[in-house]
Every structure is written in structure tokens, then in C-alpha cells.
Please model this.
Amino acid sequence: MSRSESLFQQAQKVIPGGVNSPVRAFRAVGGTPIFFESAKGAYLIDADKKRYIDYVQSWGPMILGHAHPEVLEAVIERAKSGLSFGAPTALETELAEQVCALVPGMDLVRFVNSGTEATMSAIRLARGFTGRDKIVKFEGCYHGHSDSLLVKAGSGALTMGVPSSPGVPAALADHTLTLTYNDIGGLKKVFADMGSQIACIIVEPVAGNMNCVPPVAGFLESLRQVCDESGALLIMDEVMTGFRVSHTGAQGHYGVTGDIITLGKVIGGGMPVGAFGGRREVMEKIAPLGPVYQAGTLSGNPVAMAAGIKNLELISKANFYPPIIERTTTLVNGLQAAADAAGIPFTTNHVGTMFGFFFTTEKKVENFAQVMACDNDRFNRFYHGMLNEGIYLAPASYEAGFMSAAHTDADIEATIEAAKRVFASL
Ligand code: PMP
Model:
């Protein structure tokens, strides 16, 4: 028995399913989850000392690569001065200044501890600001696991077959309208019918929780337009895309700005940090300035802030993104060529340093129905083939992949060579 197998058996005795987040359990792809011991740059080392090239990056945060020495030093130095005060520190202002300078439309920002907290708070704020209850989301988009947002959700909720979870009161779910991603006509119709009741739209500006699905031309612009016409707020959920698609996120990339923006993942560089912020007049409704309540014992935690500050400083350097984006393109093109050579129906999507691949005969994947029609069985066999080759991909076909600054040309080439062997075995 491998060490991962025995650690998994032990974990299942005290942790539901042996994991603290469902997709980690490998239910979708089958087999035993890999337990990791350490990571450095582009590589993960598992409990059996096997090395993997990592395209999961803790689900997005590690754009600098794992255990970046400058980030580690910032964290260790800061920890020596105390782990938490539950009172203001100058570090919070420093990170807030960086975030407001980088993120379009960010006048004021509040830090929280996860992406879930950020989106949950953003929804409450939008409802409090507009005095309306209904919210609009898109099928296959995931915005964390708060009640209002666990309706037709993506990522693990989709993988586990519970996109609309038991335990969410029907009275609450009734206020969540779920539309089809990239369907501009459907969007306009719903706003024509009931726009005056809608508090907000929440959207992943590049969907990364139903694999990787970019917005079609005009989709984000249409969201902005129906919000402006109806008085609803646009929440750009940039938890995944923020500082990932570009240094100014998907908003900067596509030139469409939300009223509220939610952030997570890269903003903490592997420490638990989330944030929500946006237009001053909206953010002034948050306590203590306004009546919409939101709080957190560990929010703005100094060690987490120190990691975030160093992370954003490093990603802000000139020419940080272009080589990572180039490697992302090289990888997806190489995978495509390898699949084509093996005669396997396959297509890819990528935006910035995010990518996805699909086992499908479709030439382009633009919506949830197309994602759901992909060949999962083939994905699972590909997944285990790649795992065996020492390539760590997300253990479910509904997740985006991520490139980091630490991945080298040799890593990309090794990944493509591995894929050639695995495609040939499918
Ligand atoms: N929004 C998006 C777009 C996400 O991708 C995620 C997590 N994958 C979340 C929100 C929730 O973030 P967290 O897991 O940190 O709660």
C-alpha cells in the first residue's frame, strides 16, 4: 500500500470522506487522492516522494510557483511579530492600496478570509444597497458555498452531483435566478421581464468552474448594460481570474468593470485572503459606515496580509505575465497537436494563464451544455495516465488549469511528451 493510500484510510476515520474540500477526494476520477508533503516552484512532492509538475497550484493562488522565497520570508518575518491582533494594522492599508491601484473600479476594499466570504458579503451588500432580493447567476459558475449561491453551481458541487445542495432553504433558492452562461438573448429577456426586482448579477468573467469557458464577444458588455438599465449591480467574481488572467484581472483584459468585485486566491498567494470592494457609494453601505453588516475575527490577518503584499508586489513587475501566458499557449497548442496526432477529438480554451481542455467533437466550447456533453470517461483515463507520468492536473473535468511563473519550457515540453504517450494509450 502506498503512503497516500494509508494516510487516506486514516483520514477517513476522522474527516468526512477523508478531505476538507470534496473534489480532493478523487470521487470524479476514481482512485486514491495523493497526499502531498511539500512543494517548490512548479513541483509537488507526495507522501511517497514522487514528484509532479503541478497545474492545479492550490486551485489558483500560486501564480509565483510554490514556496517562493520572498513570499516565505515575508510570512516568516511577519509571524515573529504576532499572529493576530483583531485590531487594525498598517499592513491592511498597504494591501488595500495595492488592490485599489490594480483592480479597475475598486475605490474601497474590505478583506475577508476566503472567496466564499467575499461573494457572500458582496451579495448581501448588493441586496442591502438596492433593497431588492433576487440575484442572477449562471449555470456552471461557482461562487463559493454560501446558500444563495449553491444553486446550479459548478466545480465540486457539479462534480459531486449536487449543483443545488440539500440544506439550502427553498425560500432562499427561489431568489436565485440561474441563466445560461454566454446567452445574451436569455439574459435580456429575464431583465425585460423582472429587471426591477433584481439586486445583482454575479458572474465569473471567465468561467473557471465548468472547466475554462471564456465570455463570448458582447456577453460581459451586455451584463453591464442590463445592470445599468435596471439599477441592478454587477458583481464581477474575480476570485479565480483576479491577478490571473492579467495583472488587472478579467476586468482589465475585457474592459468591462463591475460595481462590486470579489477577489481571493492570488491575492493571498496561498494564505487565506479574500476581498470584496468596488464603487465608493456602494461600499459605504458596509458597517461601520453603513447598515449592511459584515465582520471577521481574523479578517486582515497580519501574516496573510504580508503574503498578499509580497505577492502583489512581485506580480506587478514589468513583463511578469507575458512569458507565463506564452507558456500557457504553448502547452494548450502542444496538447491539441498531440491529441490530433492520436486521432482523439479534443479542443482547448485559454485566457491569460488559465486554461482548459475538453474531450469533445465540438470545435469550440462556449457553454455549460457543451461542457456537460464531454467524454468524462476519457478524461478520467487521461487523468490517471498523466498522474502516472508525474503530471498533476485537477482531479475533475470541470476545473480550469493554471500556469505559474515557475514553470519552465522544459516542464511544458515534458508535459506534452507525457500527453503524447497517454493519448496513444487511450
Ligand atoms: N468564486 C470563484 C470564482 C471561485 O473559483 C471560488 C473557489 N474556487 C470561490 C468563489 C470560492 O472561494 P473559496 O474556495 O476561497 O471559498
About this structure: Residues 59, 114-116, 119, 142-144, 155, 204, 208-209, 237, 239-240, 264, 274 surround 4'-deoxy-4'-aminopyridoxal-5'-phosphate (CB under 6 Å). The chain has a mean pLDDT of 97.
